[in-house]
Amino acid sequence: MPKLEVDGISAFDVPEGKRLVLAIEEDAELDILHRCGAYAKCTTCRVEFLEGEPEMMTQAEKEILQNKNLAGQVRLSCQILVDHDMKVRVPMTVTSMGLDGPGNAPEPSITPPPEWVEKPFS
Question: CATH number for the domain including 53?
Fold first, then answer.
């Protein structure tokens, strides 16, 4: 079972294949944002990888990160499956942003259906 460490929180065992956004929200019990409902549209579920950044990403993640000039800086937790040990920092939470809620609940599977590509930046 992969281990997820959320900086400033703790480390948790996470079922393999779980969406990272859901692991952060449910297992780490951190109020991570996902304002678009985890469809790779808004970038509020962004994370900074401290260790274990995946080499693959979805085409949807690649496009939104490039369009928002965030490529190489952050990743979208809604577009990542926990399949190995990872350590992340979560910069945007409901509490830190002073919002009324995280957004619509994410589906268990990545949305939109993933088209996997190699990460084009480091």
Answer: 3.10.20.30
